[in-house]
Amino acid sequence: MSQRTFSIIKPDAVRKGYTGAILAEIEKAGFQIVAVKKQSISKDEAKGFYHVHRERPFFDALTTFMSSGPIVLLVLEKDNAIADLRKLMGATNPANAEEGTIRKKYAGSIEENAIHGSDAEETAAFEIGYWFAGYELL
Ligand code: CMP
Prior knowledge:
Helices cover 40% and strands 20% of the residues. The chain has 7 helices and 4 strands; from the N terminus they run βααβααβααβα.
């Protein structure tokens, strides 16, 4: 069944000029781009987005990194979108990512790992609603 997920092309990948290549991988894998916008976010916005990680030791570094430069926010749709995007992204740590995955090709480290994707339906709903208004989701 058709499903929506949320994704971010992170500041490291945008800085290195990988935005187009990553979008092409996403489309080639059969995702429709429902909504896309490039913007810089504040540290507070990053903290709100990643609030589930607020007790983790990497929370401060993660939110500093995510607010360090422009990112690309995406809403994507296809059958089984959440699981399929995570498969396409590869493991969180690019050192463990499978050949052919986005993180294997474009990520430098577990902190600067090129792309984010929602991990479940509830998180996808929260994450889409955090960054996009209803009128942006045609
Ligand atoms: P993401 O899918 O965006 O969700 C949380 C992010 O925290 C994760 O990707 C990683 O980039 C980042 N992160 C940094 N350090 C760690 C760590 N030790 N374990 C898990 N995630 C980490």
